[in-house]
Structure to design on (1144 residues):
């Protein structure tokens, strides 16, 4: 039987006192499938026999304050505990009584009960007591009420008897209960470890032993003696129920009642053998066929039972509401499909698109529920189906969810489906703090679907729960300290985690609209900085689904004609990059028609296009508030969040855009962009391909496909994809930048071919701007202080800080006036530190190239320095306008920009050797020793001893990204592994946090004859311990590594490099020359191999290198910060002097 939930229940048996299966909600909905209209829940009367401390009653009492609940248990101490908990939870609709089950009774004036629940008890009563209990419950049951009883049944329980007999035999001499338990535990080892493989009953015996073990350990939580079970055949219990005046309804797991679900042959035989027989006989034969050992039966009065269906009618699924708390996980490299897991660890992997749509929809609504009709409409919209086709798929999907125990259903509104503006509060079970004087009071954790919650809150989370319970706004619920530095965003990650847990576990109550309001208010107050858009997107979706609004047209919230004309003017200005003018008109438009979503869109788009993504969040939020089911709102939101590296929120927004407009290529394109930014390559690639299937010219998708190939290490594929993207959009900058970037890594392109592509970039994008060049009026006094402008997107937390900060910190502020042109969205603590290095700081995000060029001219900059090249956030369009007399590029990219407008590239003899000038559009200005300077971080720690001395083998390693590990590198590294017996290879970088990426690389080495256990591929950050475990580092080619090479040698690990194409193929050479170890530079692949083998062959020498390398670096030009600053300034002075002496 393909029913994991059923098989799990048969293996575990008792569900426990707190479980969804016997909640009144589930009993009413299950009875509905059998054609029974059980009593409504709002004012239901519920009796729970064997309730323990009442934990199975508390969720229902909280959800339905008008209901009346009575619990009975034989343990006075448990009842006392339950009474105290009920009082702490402020529940006034629960009464708990201690009674012996043999004397079970009620007053003569007791009103009938709508629901009577007996769990974990019936099979452990003596037969006469069990019959008396059935008789009593039948007397107390309302005419259309439901009695739930679970119990052990034959034939499956025969195994339980075998185990019990073995335990009793082994413990026959036990004198005390403790001794008996010890003997029982010992006896169970027979079934856990000592069963013969030829025993045909191995599986049922082990299941029975596990059930008994849990009973002995108290995990079942019923208080029954695990050795005193009295199983029976189902037909016997049905007879006893009939004797009490009860009739059979069905099982709490209704799919188990359908013979076909146990197999076609089972169904056919069952129907033939039971022709004309009552339902109970049919079910007994089904038990014989399935070996069933545990049942959860629903009974009602005999008169009501006669009118019911003999089996669950799945056509009636359409009359129910549905809820599911499973959330989608990152694919972790899956080729297709999606994985969903709920808070209890139950999961489902599916490749069916309709199931994905259903689960994503239910995830939005969770912990609320949605009616069947809404789910049909969702599938019709998402899958382009007619009503019949959608219902067929939905019925199949809902059945699958039931089989995996992932769905809750109910007849009426669910326990979280509150109407109106009911405020959002934590459930009482987590909001209540027990009296400190009563340490015995342990409040059980649960949600209103009767699921047990195993969640431990930190002190910080308990404080946030208290604040939320008091109704404080979310920004005041947040316990993170306010930042000291202006412009730095308050950390809301802990608040997000806390709220996410409450939603996932179903620990929040309140209306859907109140949840939207709570989140929206926090986002508005923080101007979008609070990291709550993921939750907010889902909250808006829930409200829209409740209203049956599946999407709004692009023109929803459209504009009157005058405003529409203004919007068209704004669009024209944006196409010309006139952001300042566009912004002024966009703000005017939003002010003129503030109630239209479309009126806010031009402002959001203008701010995005000008790079002010953080500012764009506020108008985007306003768009969402006015049109929460309009796909364009989520496209803009996802774009902003992706640019702000808030990728988790961006993915949620983009997925919502796809849900609303599944046949719009731009929604899939923006989702691919967000997934790509989070390095979820397989999913990103699928989204990009979906976008291109809808629109082959979708630029974002085409660009991202190339980036995905690059990040996955396919340089040649990335080059081909980039060329295609450039051909489709020859004037687009990003595809062309991607082409140049990927060509740098191509193992087959010649140096001249690479440079030709850079020249083509300049011809296409920059040469036309020569008409904007004007003569510079800067003073030509070569001895005066020089005004330098640094243009960078990286004056923030960035790996390049260790290389530029030593220069900035040591600039001679008398002779050099420094200006920063900072091109980034959000500042951080590093930004605040960097600001101290400059005389003037100008944020440039949002400034057009022409506007920024004019600003630089107005500032009188003498030398303009590019430290980005063709990396993201570059402003090469500014340099192409020649806004300063002298311009140069340095550090950030490692190779030429291709721009003839830039005068110099600062390099050295290693990176730009004499004779290579024809490969640069700029004139190389070579610094002595090295063009790098390095300041080590403070958290790297000691180098440690040489690992090979303890390991007995050499560990080679690299921290490179996948794009550098081409087939030539793999062949050379494999040959090294062959020549150094027992050696191992570490490859550690962010590229390999993805499991399939790790195995893909491993398979390439395996193809070269390298055993898998010699390869240590993964990702650990920061990598200091990884470096401490290396003996020798390996550089890549034709594109060397960069920052990680300096970190490698600083940790005492020598590396060997191959001097390849200028200049990115010679970065490793420059670093080694700068620290005085040119002997580790090779000129051929064979020499590379030999140098590594030579280092590995002399462990004492290798140990000395490790012991001394860091000190050598500190004494080298690479780490002499003041000397480097003087050297760099001398170069600047030389460049400026050359201009001063030239003709104006």
């Amino acid at each position: 039987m393909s029913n994991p939930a059923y098989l799990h229940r048969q293996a575990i048996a008792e569900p426990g006192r707190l479980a969804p299966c016997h909640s009144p909600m589930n009993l009413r909905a299950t009875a509905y499938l059998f054609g029974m209209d059980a009593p409504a829940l709002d004012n239901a009367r519920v009796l729970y026999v064997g309730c323990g401390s009442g934990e199975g009653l508390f969720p229902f009492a909280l959800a339905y304050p008008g209901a009346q609940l009575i619990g009975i248990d034989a343990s006075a101490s448990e009842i006392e505990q339950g009474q105290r908990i009920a009082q702490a939870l402020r529940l006034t609709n629960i009464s708990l009584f201690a009674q012996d089950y043999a004397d079970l009774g009620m007053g003569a004036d007791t009103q009938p009960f709508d629901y009577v629940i007996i769990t974990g008890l019936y099979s452990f009563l003596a037969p006469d007591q069990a019959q008396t209990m059935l008789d009593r419950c039948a007397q107390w049951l309302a005419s259309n009420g439901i009695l739930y009883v679970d119990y052990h049944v034959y034939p499956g329980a025969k195994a339980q008897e075998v185990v019990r007999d073995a335990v009793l035999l082994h413990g026959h001499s036990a004198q005390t209960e403790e001794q008996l338990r010890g003997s029982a535990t010992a006896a169970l080892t027979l079934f856990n470890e000592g069963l013969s493989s030829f025993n045909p009953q191995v599986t049922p015996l082990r299941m029975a032993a596990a059930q008994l073990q849990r009973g002995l350990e108290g995990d079942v939580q019923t208080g029954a003696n695990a050795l005193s079970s009295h199983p029976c055949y189902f037909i016997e219990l049905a007879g006893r129920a009939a004797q009490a005046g009860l009739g059979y309804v069905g099982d709490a797991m209704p799919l188990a009642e359908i013979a076909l679900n146990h197999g076609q042959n089972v169904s056919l035989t069952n129907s033939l053998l039971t022709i004309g027989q009552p339902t109970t006989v049919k079910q007994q034969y089904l038990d014989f066929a399935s070996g069933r050992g545990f049942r959860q039966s629903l009974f009602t009065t005999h008169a009501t039972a006669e009118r019911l269906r003999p089996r669950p009618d799945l056509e009636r699924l359409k009359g129910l509401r549905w809820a599911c708390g499973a959330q989608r996980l990152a694919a972790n490299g899956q080729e297709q499909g999606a994985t969903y897991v709920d808070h209890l660890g139950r999961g489902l992997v599916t490749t069916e698109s309709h199931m994905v749509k259903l689960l994503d929809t239910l995830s939005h609504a969770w912990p609320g529920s949605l009616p069947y009709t809404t789910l049909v409409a969702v599938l019709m919209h998402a899958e382009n189906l007619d009503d019949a086709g959608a219902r067929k798929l939905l019925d199949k999907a809902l059945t699958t969810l039931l089989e995996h125990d992932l769905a809750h259903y109910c007849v009426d509104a669910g326990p979280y489906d509150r109407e109106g503006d009911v405020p959002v509060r934590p459930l009482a079970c987590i909001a209540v703090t027990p009296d400190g004087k009563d340490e015995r009071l342990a409040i059980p954790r649960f949600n209103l679907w009767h699921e047990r919650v195993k969640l431990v809150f930190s002190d910080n989370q308990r404080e946030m729960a208290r604040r939320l319970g008091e109704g404080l706004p979310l920004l005041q619920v947040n316990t993170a300290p306010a930042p000291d530095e202006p412009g730095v965003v308050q950390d809301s990650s802990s608040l997000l985690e806390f709220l996410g847990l409450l939603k996932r576990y179903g620990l929040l109550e309140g209306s859907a609209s109140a949840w939207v309001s709570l989140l929206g208010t926090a986002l508005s107050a923080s101007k979008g900085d609070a990291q709550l858009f993921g939750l907010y997107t889902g909250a808006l979706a829930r409200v829209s689904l409740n209203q049956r609004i599946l999407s709004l047209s692009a023109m929803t919230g459209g504009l009157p004609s005058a405003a529409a004309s203004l919007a068209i003017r704004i669009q024209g200005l944006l196409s010309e990059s006139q952001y300042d003018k566009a912004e002024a008109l966009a703000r005017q438009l939003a002010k003129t028609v503030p109630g239209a979503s479309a009126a806010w869109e031009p402002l959001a788009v203008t701010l995005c296009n000008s790079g002010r993504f953080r500012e764009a969040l506020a108008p985007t939020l306003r768009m969402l508030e006015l049109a929460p089911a309009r796909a364009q709102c989520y496209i803009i939101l996802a774009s902003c969040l992706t640019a702000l590296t808030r990728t988790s929120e961006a993915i949620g927004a983009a997925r919502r855009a796809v849900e609303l407009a599944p046949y719009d290529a731009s929604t899939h394109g923006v989702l691919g962009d967000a997934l790509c930014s989070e390095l979820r390559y397989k999913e990103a690639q699928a989204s990009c391909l979906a976008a291109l299937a809808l629109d082959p010219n979708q630029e974002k998708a085409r660009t991202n496909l190339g980036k995905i190939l690059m990040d996955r290490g396919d340089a040649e594929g990335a080059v081909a994809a980039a060329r295609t993207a450039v051909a489709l959009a020859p004037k687009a900058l990003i595809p062309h930048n991607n082409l140049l970037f990927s060509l740098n890594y191509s193992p087959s392109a010649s140096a001249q071919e690479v440079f030709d592509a850079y020249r083509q970039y300049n011809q296409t994008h920059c040469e036309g701007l020569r008409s904007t060049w004007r003569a510079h009026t800067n003073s030509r006094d070569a001895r005066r202080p020089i005004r330098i402008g640094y243009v960078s997107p990286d004056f923030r937390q960035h790996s390049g800080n260790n290389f530029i900060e030593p220069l900035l910190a040591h600039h001679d502020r008398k002779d050099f006036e420094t200006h920063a042109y900072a091109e980034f969205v959000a500042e951080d603590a590093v930004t605040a530190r960097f600001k101290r290095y400059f005389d003037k700081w100008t944020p440039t995000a949002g400034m057009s190239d022409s506007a920024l060029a004019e600003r630089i001219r107005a500032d009188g900059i003498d030398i303009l320095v590019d430290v980005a090249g063709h990396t993201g956030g570059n402003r090469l369009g500014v340099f192409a306008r020649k806004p300063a007399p002298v311009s140069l590029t340095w550090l950030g990219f490692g190779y030429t920009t291709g721009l003839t407008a830039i005068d110099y590239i600062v390099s050295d003899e290693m990176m730009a050797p004499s004779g290579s000038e024809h490969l640069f559009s700029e004139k190389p200005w070579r610094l002595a020793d090295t063009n790098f300077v390095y300041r080590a971080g403070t958290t790297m720690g000691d180098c440690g001893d040489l690992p090979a001395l303890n390991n007995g083998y050499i560990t080679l390693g690299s921290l490179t990204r996948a794009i550098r590990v081409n087939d030539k590198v793999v062949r050379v590294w494999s040959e090294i592994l062959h020549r150094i017996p027992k050696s191992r290879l570490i490859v550690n970088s962010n590229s390999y946090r993805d499991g399939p990426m790790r195995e893909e690389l491993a398979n390439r080495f395996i193809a070269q004859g390298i055993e898998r256990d010699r390869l240590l591929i993964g990702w650990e950050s920061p990598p200091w311990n990884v470096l401490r475990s290396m003996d020798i580092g390996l550089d890549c080619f034709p594109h060397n590594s960069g920052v990680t090479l300096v970190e490698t040698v600083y940790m005492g690990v020598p590396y060997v490099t191959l001097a390849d194409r200028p200049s990115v193929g010679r970065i490793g050479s420059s670093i080694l020359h700068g620290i005085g170890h040119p002997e580790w530079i090779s000129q051929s692949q064979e020499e590379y191999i030999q140098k590594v083998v030579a280092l590995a062959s002399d462990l004492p020498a290798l140990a000395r290198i490790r012991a001394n390398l860091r000190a050598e670096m500190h004494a080298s030009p690479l780490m002499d910060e003041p000397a480097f600053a003087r050297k760099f300034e001398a170069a600047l002075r030389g460049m400026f002097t050359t201009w001063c002496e030239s003709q104006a």
Remarks:
- The longest strand covers residues 141-154.
